[in-house]
Design goal:
The protein contains four helices and eight strands.
Length: 167
Amino acid sequence: MIMMETERLFLRQFKEDDIFSLHPIFSDSETMKYYPAPFSLEQTQNWIKKNQNRYDEDGFGLWGICLKETKELIGDCGLIKQKVDGRVEVEIGYHVNKEYWARGFASEAAKGCRDYGFDQLGLLKLISIIDPNNMPSIRVAEKIGFRKEKESLIFNKNHSIYSGSKE
C-alpha cells in the first residue's frame, strides 16, 4: 500500500520480500555506523515485521522508500513512536542505501513524512533522534525545518533531539 508520493519517490508499507533490498542497506557497516552494529538477516526480518505491526497498532511506521522511475526500494523513512525523557514522541527516522546518498532522497522522503504527520495524522510536533556525530542526518533534519531541542540519553547513549512543530 502506497502511503505517500513526493516528486521522485513513493513510500509504501513493507512486504516480506523487501528483505532482499533492505538487508544490503542494514548489513552495511558504513550505513549503520551510528547503530550498535550492522543487522543480521534475522534482525532485518524482525525490522520488517516490527514495522508491519506498527502499521496495525499505530497506523504508521517506517515505510519503504521507492524510486518512482524504477520502483526500486532504496531505503526506509517514516514515523515511529519513541520514548524520550519519559514522554512518547513521534520520530521521523530514515536510512538510505549509500549508493543513493547526497542526492536529496532522505530529505525528500523525510519532508513527505513530516507533512504526512502534521497534515494527515494531525500531530503537532515531530522529532528526530540523531547521534551528535551523524552530520548527514543532522543536515536532513535541518533541511526539513527541525532544530536541535536538547540532548538525551536514548538507546544507552547520548543523542541529539531535533524537533519541528506544525506551523
